[in-house]
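ARCHIVE CARD
Drawer: 12
Card no.: 0347
Subject: one protein chain, sequence and derived structure
Cross-reference: see card 0346
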Amino acid sequence: MAGKTALVLGGTGAVGKTLVRDLLHNGGFSRITTVGRREFEYDGPNKNILVQKVIDFEKVDDFKDVFVGHDVVFCTLGTTRAQAGSASRFVEIDKGYVISSAKIIKQQNQDRDIHYLYCSTTGANKNSSFLYPRTKGEIEHELGDVGFKRVTIFRPGFLKVEEERTDRGSFEKYVVGAAIGFMKLVGSKSYVDVATVGKAMRRYAVGESSISPDAKTLENGTQFEIIDNKSILELGAEK
């Protein structure tokens, strides 16, 4: 990947922070650009290749220039219904930000064969009756329609974060706590550390992988791949 550039959307989120750190610590790219609502705090190795762009995703069309000149795109953008405030607002942010920025990236880099990697979730299904997996499934489907050379979807299990979220309501905290307890009962392969997800995304992007994803070629020519939680754990565990 020497000489190639990477773009990270959502670099201040739970998965995004670990991904950016992993990218910078392990090299492989000549430049790493983060695009988000605030800057990522970092003072480690290869800081000189980190470029940070703060934008307003509500006015993403005003920031088209920041999306020019990237070969690999990592997207870890996401929110919760509680954080968004309503179901409709959740969809506007979780799906709207991802798809609108993806379309701009494609428009601004017509001469590049972009590899787009997106962090989704286990159970994503555009036909689901539940909001969260349905929205993630819709995002996956629409990313396939954008026209990138290659789209890789990561579907991690329940995410073990580095720090407790402070934006959850009491009911959501109860559900999260119950889910963690259940995951521990059914086995460690049902959940995954955010750092493992970040490492898996980086390793797959740079070709440090021996796994065989569920892959197909879409009608528009896009190579569309899905990597499940089992494969994420394998990728993240490899030396």
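Annotation on reverse: The chain has one domain: 5-237. Residues 171-176 have pLDDT under 50 and may be disordered.
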